[in-house]
Amino acid sequence: MNRSHNLTIAVSKGRILTEALPLLTELGIRPVEAPEQTRKLILETAKPGIKLVVVRATDVPTYVEYGAADLGIAGKDVLLEYGGKGLYEPVDLKIARCKMVLAGPKKEAKLNRRLRVATKYIKTTRDYFASRGEQVEIIKLYGSMELAPLLGLADRIVDLIDTGNTLKANGLVPLELITWISSRLIVNTAAMKMKHELIKPIINQLEQLCK
Ligand code: AMP
Fold this sequence. Notes:
- The chain is of the alpha/beta class.
- The protein contains eight helices and eleven strands.
- The strands form two sheets. Strands 2-3-1-4-11-5 form a six-stranded mixed beta sheet.
- Bound molecules: adenosine monophosphate.
- The site of adenosine monophosphate has 12 residues, from strand 9 and helix 6.
């Protein structure tokens, strides 16, 4: 874990970072260098002792679980997939909102085999179909899920949608809402105890800001 008077916050690159920065700035946690103008991965902030680290979305819970970062900001999609070991998830920041959906072609021929679902959200998809008592074949992809039904790799996909434009452009439609997604503040469980006086005010302020 980091030294007791220091805090490290891991934030997902991209849309989550863009939407989290105004919130962090409200708390005085403003990076001294603009993240998009530096190649540094560790950013000092205007608050002495508080650093931001900018990492891949799926790595945020790992940094926080192992205490390499005390706090993190990650999408619920990533947290559902990770499984939430050794982490608290005290605040829904209500940023980077979107939906996780099951999607597929508008029309499809009747299948005489098990449904094939392509996704990068293997665990969430397995849990979703298990809760409905349906047996499906899940195919792991790392990106561009929309392509899978077009090339006959899968019958359906599980993916995030925001405007729905990507699905539409590829002749797909949302079929079922699996869950709403937004970014969450996560906290390392040991840091929550050892650095309570540093972390609690951040949780309280974010709760107020994101009501
Ligand atoms: P859209 O065309 O606006 O529905 O956006 C769909 C594409 O953006 C898909 O490739 C999604 O994986 C991605 N996407 C949408 N919302 C988010 C989000 N909050 N976080 C990460 N990826 C997203």
